[in-house]
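Operator note (shift B, R.M.): manual run for LPFR motif small protein requested after the automated queue skipped it. Running by hand, logging everything below so the morning shift can see what happened. Input copied straight from the record, untouched. If output looks odd, do not overwrite the archive copy; leave it for review.
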Amino acid sequence: MLRAIADVLRTVGGAVAMIVSLPFRLLARLFGGVSDTVRGRH
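Run finished. Output pasted below as returned.
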């Protein structure tokens, strides 16, 4: 029983971590692209 609960918590935690990190990854990619274009112009 405890192992099943732990598995569910682990799965939910992994999903939450993925959902939370997605916007940050998109922002990092966005800002990375912006800084690349700014550097390219100079």
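Quick read of the result: The longest helix spans residues 2-41. The two ends are 62 Å apart (CA to CA).
Leaving this for review. - R.M.
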